Amino acid sequence: MRFRSYLEGDEAVLRFTPSPEYTGGVPGHVYGGLLASLLDCHGAAAASGFAHRARGREVGDGGEPLRFVTGTLTVVYRRPTPMGVELTVRGRLDSISGRKVVVALELSAEGEVCVTGEMVAIQIPPEL
Amino acid sequence: MRFRSYLEGDEAVLRFTPSPEYTGGVPGHVYGGLLASLLDCHGAAAASGFAHRARGREVGDGGEPLRFVTGTLTVVYRRPTPMGVELTVRGRLDSISGRKVVVALELSAEGEVCVTGEMVAIQIPPEL
Fold it and tell me: Which among A36, A76, A128 has the least Cβ separation from residue B33?
């Protein structure tokens, strides 16, 4: 999977159309593990974006990048996610406290929210 | 990914060695999305196994299978998960209540617990 997350106003946004092999137990619907992966990737990227912004910086500004790993990821599957359409994942900053950034996550397809979640991301030291 | 989950005593167990492309942001460590996917797949399989057992049945006994989807998955990354070794995911039944089965999950590598989690799985009607 290759995709990029972007900051748009107050939100971090990822748009992605899964390829057809990522169906799961229920035909025509996206595999839950892929959805968790999207929230995981996007949540860590969003945490980095929000952390840079909080310091008056931008991702890729040439300074030491602020990198994050997932501490805890919670994924709530609210309705089946359809295959064959673009998915949008939105992240909103909940809190920043020291090395910990909490991001609220929402995945939608065709305007309907299919999955919500929360990531607690932890900043990793630059030498790792 | 292809793997099977098995009931062993009170636990549902999955053993899996990720192929090398499933590394993530941190070199030498398994990608968090793959770990979430393993807990997702195994949690749903474990829920089915426990539900069959609770009715005195076995998975694949020729009766109508009891199938589950993920309601909520929580994944806590406790330490980096090393690449190149077999991972073991264990699920224990927390509760069964109507269509809802709660499974406690634990992923370990080389005897150390790397990831813990919880799945709330929901039984789906047989016609889906």
Answer: A36
Report the residue from A26, A40, A44 with minimal CB separation from B36. Answer: A40
Domains and CATH numbers, chain A: 5-123 (3.10.129.10)
Calculate how close chain B gets to A100, using CA atoms only, in Å: 14
In this prediction the pTM is: 0.89
Kindly state the tokens that stand for B56: 């005195």
Report which of B119, B45, B49, B39 is spatially closest to residue B87, judged by C-alpha positions: B39
Other CB atoms within 10 Å distance of the CB of residue B88: 16
A72, A118, B23, B46, B125 from B51: Cα distances, Å: 27, 28, 34, 8, 14
| ipTM associated with this complex | 0.86
pLDDT in tens, A80-127: 999 999 999 999 999 999 999 999 999 999 999 999 999 999 998 876
Measured between CA atoms, the residue of chain B closest to residue A39 is B33
Report CB contact under 8 Å: B70, A44.
Answer: no
User: B32: which residues sit within 8 A by CB, 6+ positions away?
Assistant: A40, A44, A69, A70, A73, B24, B75, B77
Contact criterion met (CB < 8 Å) for A36 and B34: no
Altogether, the residues listed in chain B come to a count of 128
- Buried b / exposed e over B2-12, threshold 16 CB at 10 Å, is eeebebeeebb
